[in-house]
Design goal:
- It is globular, with a radius of gyration of 20 Å.
- It has 2 domains: about 90 residues, Orthogonal Bundle (Hypothetical Oxidoreductase Yiak, Chain: A, domain 1); about 210 residues, Ribosomal Protein S8, Chain: A, domain 1 (2-Layer Sandwich), CATH 3.30.1370.60.
- Helix 1 packs antiparallel against helix 2.
- It has a 7-stranded mixed β-sheet, with helices on both faces. Strands 11-10-12 form a 3-stranded antiparallel β-sheet, with no helix packed on it. It has a two-stranded antiparallel ribbon with strand order 1-14.
- It is of the alpha+beta class and about 350 residues long.
- Helix content is about 35%, strand content about 20%.
- The chain has 10 helices and 14 strands.
- The longest helix is centred in the first third of the chain and has 19 residues.
Length: about 350
């Protein structure tokens, strides 16, 4: 069975999330900030990281697993670096602050790195890598995932997460180049959306503990996600996940390895999620417009290069999310019926208006 979609405007979705966050106890400015970033995730097509996560966030807030009124503060600082303590606040707020500090420091130092501890799930990595773009900067983001779905290469004990990485490069006339990826073949959020919609996973996403393909998302606990490279070269993906975890988790005094709390199963424990943002000021390396022009040329050369038989077009990282952002801004953001039913339940529990009063499929 495959769900149909209902399309809603960005403003309506953002308003619904903001109202929910207010009812859950977030101060008005924080509720607006979280709602903006969650709706931006859906706008760009990151459907596993936007409003899809609202029921889970609500459960954790109600269970005391998230601090609704955090004191997000710098606890270590040098000219080009900072370490934030997120005080167990919503990850969106912590990482927005981290990106703002990184941008400010990069203006002075050329390059800045801001890590965080005691944060939480913050949505898609690209949201924070993209923030420096508006300031003529390159942005990078690293995180430890909020549940371990990956063993050491050759093992079966879940000790590493999907540990995402994102990088964003501004262009002049072309869309920015924005890489956003998990270090596994698929992010676990995609597994969860498949389960919610009653769909099966493609072979190659997960295997069971005997190494056999696992395609039923409801049986995901019986196996693990495959690292980038799959069964043939997964040691490369595992190595990348480990390095990102060391940078985003261990370096910041945040959870890594056995310390990672599975927030899919545990709603009350503090996750101590670790993340990091890096900003690179283009002007520290030469003329800003010249860099953007070179990115334009490279992007056009790559997209216009000769294609293999059967390939319709060549895309660069960020092309799909850029197209989704344009399409969804014009036509509305698609929300699957199964998700709408979950959101209706949340609306009822919180005593707020439903996102959609009457379903009209797109």
């Amino acid at each position: 069975m495959t769900d149909q979609n209902t399309r809603v405007s960005f403003e309506r979705l953002r308003g619904f999330i903001e109202t929910a966050m207010l009812e859950l106890g977030l101060p008005p400015a924080d509720a607006r900030g979280v709602a903006e970033l969650m709706a931006q995730a859906d706008l760009q097509g990151s459907e596993g990281h936007g409003v899809f996560r609202l029921p889970q966030y609500a459960r954790r807030i109600k269970a005391g697993g998230v601090n609704t009124k955090p004191d997000i503060r710098i606890i270590e600082e040098r000219a080009g670096t900072a370490l934030l303590d997120g005080d167990n606040g919503m990850g969106h707020l912590v990482m927005k602050r981290a990106a703002e500090i990184a941008i400010e420091k990069a203006r002075a130092c050329g390059v800045a790195w801001v890590g965080s501890r005691f944060s939480n799930h913050a949505g898609p990595a690209s949201l924070y890598a993209r923030m420096p773009l508006a300031h003529d900067m390159i942005g990078l983001y690293f995180a430890v995932g909020n549940a371990n779905h990956l063993p050491a290469w050759g093992g079966i004990d879940m000790l590493v997460s999907t540990n995402p990485v994102a990088a964003a490069f501004p262009a002049r006339n072309e869309p920015p180049v924005v890489l956003d990826m998990a270090t596994t073949v698929a992010a676990y959020g995609k597994v969860k959306t498949k389960a919610q919609r009653g769909e099966t996973m493609p072979e190659g996403w997960m295997v069971d503990r005997d190494g056999k393909p696992l395609t039923d998302p409801n049986r995901s606990d019986e196996g693990f996600l495959l690292p980038l490279g799959g069964m043939e070269a997964g040691y490369k993906g595992f190595g990348l996940a480990l390095v990102i975890g060391l940078l985003a988790g261990t370096l910041n005094g945040a959870a890594m390895g056995k310390e990672v709390v599975d927030f899919n199963k545990d709603s009350s424990s503090v996750t101590n999620t670790g993340q990091a943002v890096m900003a690179i000021d283009l002007s520290a390396f030469g003329a800003v417009d010249a860099f953007k022009a070179r990115v334009d040329v490279l992007a056009r050369d790559l997209r216009g290069s000769r294609r293999m038989s059967g390939v319709g077009k060549i895309s660069l990282p960020g092309d799909n999310s850029h197209a989704a952002r344009v399409r969804n801004a014009r036509e509305g953001i698609p929300v699957a019926d199964a998700l709408l039913r979950e959101l209706d339940k949340i609306a009822g529990e919180l005593g707020i208006a439903k996102l959609v009063q009457e379903i009209s499929h797109a």
